[in-house]
Amino acid sequence: MLNIAARAILVCLFFAVPWLGVGAYWINVLNNVGMYAILALSLNVILGHAGMFHMGHAAFFAIGSYAAAVLNTQCGWPVLAALPVAGAAAGLFALLVAAPIIHLRGDYLLMVTIGIVEIVRIALVNDVFGLTGGPNGIVGIARPVVFGFRIARPEHFFLLIWCSVVLTLLLFHWLENSRFGRALNYIREDVVAAEGMGVNTVRYKLAAFAIGAVWAGFTGVIYASQMRTISPGSFSYWESVVLFMIVILGGSGNQLGVLLGAFLIIGLPELFRGLQDARMLFFGAALVAMMIFRPQGLLPAKRRNYLLPPGWAEKFP
Protein backbone atom coordinates (compact mmCIF):
# COMPACT_ATOMS: atom_id res chain seq x y z
CA MET A 1 0.00 0.00 0.00
CA LEU A 2 1.15 3.51 -0.79
CA ASN A 3 2.03 5.70 2.16
CA ILE A 4 0.50 9.12 2.70
CA ALA A 5 3.39 11.00 1.05
CA ALA A 6 3.22 8.86 -2.10
CA ARG A 7 -0.55 9.33 -2.32
CA ALA A 8 -0.15 13.10 -1.94
CA ILE A 9 2.42 13.15 -4.76
CA LEU A 10 0.11 11.15 -7.04
CA VAL A 11 -2.78 13.50 -6.30
CA CYS A 12 -0.61 16.55 -7.08
CA LEU A 13 0.55 14.97 -10.36
CA PHE A 14 -3.03 14.21 -11.32
CA PHE A 15 -4.13 17.79 -10.67
CA ALA A 16 -1.27 18.97 -12.90
CA VAL A 17 -2.56 16.92 -15.88
CA PRO A 18 -4.40 19.83 -17.61
CA TRP A 19 -1.14 21.77 -17.84
CA LEU A 20 0.87 18.89 -19.32
CA GLY A 21 -0.38 19.40 -22.86
CA VAL A 22 -2.99 16.64 -22.94
CA GLY A 23 -5.48 18.75 -24.91
CA ALA A 24 -8.96 20.11 -24.21
CA TYR A 25 -10.68 16.91 -25.39
CA TRP A 26 -9.04 14.69 -22.79
CA ILE A 27 -9.50 17.30 -20.08
CA ASN A 28 -13.22 17.22 -20.84
CA VAL A 29 -13.14 13.42 -20.67
CA LEU A 30 -11.56 13.61 -17.20
CA ASN A 31 -14.16 16.21 -16.21
CA ASN A 32 -16.87 13.80 -17.29
CA VAL A 33 -15.24 10.99 -15.31
CA GLY A 34 -15.12 13.20 -12.23
CA MET A 35 -18.77 14.19 -12.59
CA TYR A 36 -19.88 10.57 -12.81
CA ALA A 37 -17.56 9.67 -9.94
CA ILE A 38 -19.30 12.16 -7.63
CA LEU A 39 -22.72 10.89 -8.68
CA ALA A 40 -21.67 7.26 -8.23
CA LEU A 41 -20.20 8.00 -4.80
CA SER A 42 -23.50 9.55 -3.76
CA LEU A 43 -25.34 6.48 -5.10
CA ASN A 44 -22.89 4.30 -3.18
CA VAL A 45 -24.34 5.63 0.08
CA ILE A 46 -27.72 4.18 -0.90
CA LEU A 47 -26.65 1.09 -2.82
CA GLY A 48 -23.28 0.19 -1.35
CA HIS A 49 -23.69 1.08 2.31
CA ALA A 50 -27.43 0.73 2.92
CA GLY A 51 -27.86 -2.11 0.42
CA MET A 52 -30.93 -0.64 -1.30
CA PHE A 53 -31.29 -1.35 -5.03
CA HIS A 54 -31.83 2.15 -6.40
CA MET A 55 -32.02 2.72 -10.16
CA GLY A 56 -33.44 6.24 -10.19
CA HIS A 57 -30.50 8.38 -9.11
CA ALA A 58 -30.61 10.48 -12.28
CA ALA A 59 -33.89 11.97 -11.01
CA PHE A 60 -32.12 13.71 -8.11
CA PHE A 61 -29.35 14.83 -10.47
CA ALA A 62 -31.99 16.35 -12.77
CA ILE A 63 -33.77 18.18 -9.96
CA GLY A 64 -30.52 19.78 -8.81
CA SER A 65 -29.62 20.83 -12.35
CA TYR A 66 -33.02 22.33 -13.11
CA ALA A 67 -33.25 24.08 -9.74
CA ALA A 68 -29.94 25.84 -10.41
CA ALA A 69 -30.88 26.61 -14.02
CA VAL A 70 -34.25 28.14 -13.09
CA LEU A 71 -32.79 30.24 -10.26
CA ASN A 72 -29.99 31.49 -12.49
CA THR A 73 -31.87 32.22 -15.70
CA GLN A 74 -35.18 33.43 -14.26
CA CYS A 75 -34.22 34.86 -10.86
CA GLY A 76 -30.71 36.09 -11.59
CA TRP A 77 -29.02 34.02 -8.87
CA PRO A 78 -25.31 33.22 -9.24
CA VAL A 79 -24.98 29.54 -10.08
CA LEU A 80 -23.05 28.53 -6.97
CA ALA A 81 -25.50 30.43 -4.77
CA ALA A 82 -28.11 27.92 -5.93
CA LEU A 83 -26.18 25.00 -4.39
CA PRO A 84 -28.13 24.91 -1.08
CA VAL A 85 -31.50 25.21 -2.83
CA ALA A 86 -30.63 22.55 -5.42
CA GLY A 87 -29.41 20.14 -2.76
CA ALA A 88 -32.43 20.79 -0.54
CA ALA A 89 -34.85 20.32 -3.46
CA ALA A 90 -33.27 16.99 -4.40
CA GLY A 91 -33.18 15.84 -0.78
CA LEU A 92 -36.82 16.77 -0.08
CA PHE A 93 -37.93 15.06 -3.27
CA ALA A 94 -36.00 11.95 -2.22
CA LEU A 95 -37.74 11.90 1.16
CA LEU A 96 -41.11 12.44 -0.51
CA VAL A 97 -40.78 9.55 -2.96
CA ALA A 98 -38.83 7.20 -0.68
CA ALA A 99 -41.15 7.37 2.35
CA PRO A 100 -43.93 5.24 0.77
CA ILE A 101 -41.54 2.68 -0.75
CA ILE A 102 -38.83 2.39 1.90
CA HIS A 103 -40.23 -0.94 3.13
CA LEU A 104 -39.66 -2.53 -0.28
CA ARG A 105 -36.56 -4.64 -0.84
CA GLY A 106 -34.54 -6.08 -3.68
CA ASP A 107 -36.09 -6.18 -7.13
CA TYR A 108 -39.33 -4.54 -5.99
CA LEU A 109 -37.51 -1.39 -4.85
CA LEU A 110 -35.46 -1.47 -8.07
CA MET A 111 -38.55 -1.43 -10.27
CA VAL A 112 -40.20 1.40 -8.34
CA THR A 113 -37.11 3.61 -8.54
CA ILE A 114 -36.97 3.06 -12.29
CA GLY A 115 -40.46 4.53 -12.40
CA ILE A 116 -39.33 7.56 -10.38
CA VAL A 117 -36.68 8.62 -12.87
CA GLU A 118 -39.12 8.20 -15.75
CA ILE A 119 -41.77 10.29 -13.95
CA VAL A 120 -39.25 13.10 -13.46
CA ARG A 121 -38.12 12.96 -17.09
CA ILE A 122 -41.70 13.06 -18.40
CA ALA A 123 -42.53 15.96 -16.07
CA LEU A 124 -39.55 17.89 -17.45
CA VAL A 125 -40.61 17.17 -21.04
CA ASN A 126 -44.16 18.34 -20.33
CA ASP A 127 -42.86 21.62 -18.85
CA VAL A 128 -44.52 21.30 -15.46
CA PHE A 129 -45.34 24.72 -13.92
CA GLY A 130 -43.90 26.35 -17.04
CA LEU A 131 -40.36 26.34 -15.63
CA THR A 132 -38.49 23.52 -17.38
CA GLY A 133 -38.66 24.66 -21.02
CA GLY A 134 -40.17 21.39 -22.23
CA PRO A 135 -38.14 19.17 -24.59
CA ASN A 136 -35.82 22.07 -25.44
CA GLY A 137 -34.77 22.53 -21.81
CA ILE A 138 -33.13 25.68 -20.44
CA VAL A 139 -30.34 27.59 -22.18
CA GLY A 140 -28.07 30.47 -21.24
CA ILE A 141 -27.01 29.21 -17.81
CA ALA A 142 -24.16 31.32 -16.43
CA ARG A 143 -20.70 30.09 -15.59
CA PRO A 144 -19.80 29.74 -11.89
CA VAL A 145 -17.74 32.44 -10.20
CA VAL A 146 -15.46 31.64 -7.24
CA PHE A 147 -14.01 34.61 -5.31
CA GLY A 148 -14.42 36.81 -8.37
CA PHE A 149 -12.80 34.30 -10.73
CA ARG A 150 -15.03 33.11 -13.59
CA ILE A 151 -14.72 29.38 -14.27
CA ALA A 152 -15.01 28.95 -18.02
CA ARG A 153 -12.19 26.88 -19.49
CA PRO A 154 -12.00 23.05 -19.32
CA GLU A 155 -8.97 23.19 -17.00
CA HIS A 156 -10.88 25.47 -14.64
CA PHE A 157 -13.74 22.98 -14.46
CA PHE A 158 -11.16 20.23 -13.99
CA LEU A 159 -10.03 21.86 -10.74
CA LEU A 160 -13.60 22.52 -9.60
CA ILE A 161 -14.83 19.01 -10.36
CA TRP A 162 -11.88 17.08 -9.01
CA CYS A 163 -11.64 19.20 -5.86
CA SER A 164 -15.30 18.25 -5.42
CA VAL A 165 -14.35 14.58 -5.91
CA VAL A 166 -11.69 14.84 -3.18
CA LEU A 167 -14.17 16.57 -0.86
CA THR A 168 -16.75 13.87 -1.57
CA LEU A 169 -14.25 11.10 -0.83
CA LEU A 170 -13.25 12.67 2.47
CA LEU A 171 -16.83 13.36 3.55
CA PHE A 172 -18.13 9.90 2.70
CA HIS A 173 -15.08 8.26 4.26
CA TRP A 174 -15.92 10.04 7.49
CA LEU A 175 -19.57 9.07 7.09
CA GLU A 176 -18.67 5.43 6.48
CA ASN A 177 -16.66 5.26 9.70
CA SER A 178 -19.24 7.09 11.78
CA ARG A 179 -21.98 5.53 13.86
CA PHE A 180 -24.40 6.35 11.05
CA GLY A 181 -22.25 4.51 8.50
CA ARG A 182 -21.92 1.44 10.69
CA ALA A 183 -25.69 1.36 11.13
CA LEU A 184 -26.15 1.43 7.36
CA ASN A 185 -23.73 -1.47 7.00
CA TYR A 186 -25.69 -3.46 9.60
CA ILE A 187 -28.86 -2.84 7.60
CA ARG A 188 -27.14 -3.93 4.39
CA GLU A 189 -25.92 -7.19 5.90
CA ASP A 190 -29.11 -8.17 7.74
CA VAL A 191 -32.00 -5.78 8.15
CA VAL A 192 -33.87 -8.10 10.54
CA ALA A 193 -30.84 -8.43 12.82
CA ALA A 194 -30.34 -4.66 12.70
CA GLU A 195 -33.93 -4.10 13.79
CA GLY A 196 -33.44 -6.64 16.57
CA MET A 197 -30.44 -4.65 17.82
CA GLY A 198 -32.56 -1.51 18.05
CA VAL A 199 -31.58 0.20 14.80
CA ASN A 200 -34.40 2.33 13.37
CA THR A 201 -34.00 0.94 9.86
CA VAL A 202 -36.67 3.16 8.28
CA ARG A 203 -35.05 6.36 9.58
CA TYR A 204 -31.57 5.30 8.50
CA LYS A 205 -32.73 4.24 5.05
CA LEU A 206 -34.53 7.53 4.51
CA ALA A 207 -31.45 9.41 5.69
CA ALA A 208 -29.28 7.47 3.22
CA PHE A 209 -31.66 8.34 0.39
CA ALA A 210 -31.63 12.00 1.39
CA ILE A 211 -27.84 12.24 1.69
CA GLY A 212 -27.29 10.60 -1.69
CA ALA A 213 -29.93 12.83 -3.30
CA VAL A 214 -28.55 16.05 -1.80
CA TRP A 215 -25.08 15.30 -3.15
CA ALA A 216 -26.52 14.40 -6.56
CA GLY A 217 -28.33 17.75 -6.51
CA PHE A 218 -25.07 19.55 -5.79
CA THR A 219 -23.48 17.76 -8.74
CA GLY A 220 -26.35 18.88 -10.94
CA VAL A 221 -25.42 22.51 -10.27
CA ILE A 222 -21.87 21.94 -11.50
CA TYR A 223 -23.19 20.07 -14.54
CA ALA A 224 -25.64 22.81 -15.48
CA SER A 225 -23.00 25.53 -15.20
CA GLN A 226 -20.53 23.53 -17.26
CA MET A 227 -22.94 22.65 -20.09
CA ARG A 228 -24.81 26.01 -19.98
CA THR A 229 -27.83 24.24 -21.42
CA ILE A 230 -29.80 21.31 -20.04
CA SER A 231 -32.68 19.23 -21.41
CA PRO A 232 -34.66 16.18 -20.26
CA GLY A 233 -32.62 13.95 -22.57
CA SER A 234 -29.58 14.44 -20.33
CA PHE A 235 -31.33 12.73 -17.39
CA SER A 236 -32.71 9.57 -18.92
CA TYR A 237 -33.01 6.15 -17.36
CA TRP A 238 -29.73 5.22 -19.08
CA GLU A 239 -27.82 7.64 -16.82
CA SER A 240 -29.09 5.79 -13.77
CA VAL A 241 -28.03 2.49 -15.33
CA VAL A 242 -24.52 3.82 -15.93
CA LEU A 243 -24.22 4.97 -12.30
CA PHE A 244 -25.50 1.61 -11.08
CA MET A 245 -22.92 -0.19 -13.21
CA ILE A 246 -20.10 2.04 -11.95
CA VAL A 247 -20.87 1.12 -8.34
CA ILE A 248 -21.31 -2.61 -9.04
CA LEU A 249 -18.29 -2.92 -11.32
CA GLY A 250 -15.93 -0.94 -9.12
CA GLY A 251 -16.98 -2.50 -5.84
CA SER A 252 -20.14 -1.75 -3.93
CA GLY A 253 -19.37 -0.03 -0.63
CA ASN A 254 -15.76 0.85 -1.54
CA GLN A 255 -15.10 4.47 -2.48
CA LEU A 256 -11.86 3.80 -4.34
CA GLY A 257 -13.61 0.97 -6.16
CA VAL A 258 -16.36 3.36 -7.26
CA LEU A 259 -13.72 5.82 -8.46
CA LEU A 260 -12.05 3.04 -10.47
CA GLY A 261 -15.43 2.06 -11.90
CA ALA A 262 -15.98 5.62 -13.12
CA PHE A 263 -12.66 5.59 -14.97
CA LEU A 264 -13.46 2.23 -16.57
CA ILE A 265 -17.08 2.90 -17.55
CA ILE A 266 -16.74 6.55 -18.60
CA GLY A 267 -13.08 6.99 -19.53
CA LEU A 268 -12.13 3.65 -21.10
CA PRO A 269 -14.58 3.81 -24.04
CA GLU A 270 -12.96 7.09 -25.10
CA LEU A 271 -9.76 5.18 -25.80
CA PHE A 272 -11.66 3.09 -28.36
CA ARG A 273 -13.67 5.68 -30.24
CA GLY A 274 -13.85 3.39 -33.26
CA LEU A 275 -15.80 0.89 -31.19
CA GLN A 276 -18.25 3.46 -29.81
CA ASP A 277 -21.22 1.67 -31.36
CA ALA A 278 -20.31 -1.46 -29.39
CA ARG A 279 -20.32 0.30 -26.01
CA MET A 280 -23.54 -1.38 -24.93
CA LEU A 281 -22.05 -4.74 -25.84
CA PHE A 282 -18.93 -3.89 -23.84
CA PHE A 283 -20.98 -2.91 -20.78
CA GLY A 284 -23.08 -6.04 -20.97
CA ALA A 285 -20.12 -8.35 -21.45
CA ALA A 286 -18.20 -6.66 -18.63
CA LEU A 287 -21.10 -7.03 -16.21
CA VAL A 288 -21.66 -10.68 -17.14
CA ALA A 289 -17.95 -11.41 -16.69
CA MET A 290 -17.94 -9.62 -13.36
CA MET A 291 -20.94 -11.57 -12.10
CA ILE A 292 -19.23 -14.82 -13.05
CA PHE A 293 -15.63 -14.24 -12.05
CA ARG A 294 -15.77 -11.44 -9.47
CA PRO A 295 -19.31 -10.75 -8.29
CA GLN A 296 -18.06 -8.60 -5.39
CA GLY A 297 -16.56 -6.01 -7.80
CA LEU A 298 -12.99 -5.05 -8.67
CA LEU A 299 -12.28 -3.44 -5.29
CA PRO A 300 -14.92 -4.75 -2.89
CA ALA A 301 -15.42 -3.28 0.55
CA LYS A 302 -13.53 -5.13 3.25
CA ARG A 303 -15.62 -6.90 5.83
CA ARG A 304 -15.01 -5.43 9.25
CA ASN A 305 -14.78 -7.43 12.46
CA TYR A 306 -15.78 -5.53 15.56
CA LEU A 307 -13.98 -7.37 18.37
CA LEU A 308 -14.98 -7.04 21.99
CA PRO A 309 -12.37 -5.76 24.45
CA PRO A 310 -10.50 -8.50 26.37
CA GLY A 311 -12.52 -9.76 29.32
CA TRP A 312 -15.66 -7.92 28.24
CA ALA A 313 -17.62 -11.06 27.37
CA GLU A 314 -16.92 -12.65 30.78
CA LYS A 315 -18.82 -9.85 32.45
CA PHE A 316 -22.02 -10.98 30.75
CA PRO A 317 -22.08 -14.80 30.83
Report on this model:
This protein has 317 residues and is mainly α. The protein has one domain. The protein is 64% helix and 3% strand. The chain contains 12 helices and 4 strands, in the order H-H-H-H-H-E-E-E-H-H-H-H-E-H-H-H. A two-stranded antiparallel sheet has the order 1-4. Strand 2 and strand 3 form a beta hairpin. Helix 2 packs across helix 11, helix 3 runs antiparallel to helix 4 and helix 3 runs parallel beside helix 5. The C terminus is likely disordered.
Query: Main sheet, how many strands, which sense, barrel?
Result: 2 strands, antiparallel
Helix content: 55-70%
User: How many β-strands, per DSSP?
Assistant: 4
Based on secondary structure, the structural category is mainly alpha
Low-confidence stretches: 312-317
State the oligomer: single chain
Give the distance, in angstroms, between the N- and C-terminal Cα atoms. 41 Å
Shape: globular
- The H/E string reads HHHHHEEEHHHHEHHH
**Average of the residue pLDDT scores:** 85
Order of strands across the biggest sheet?
1-4
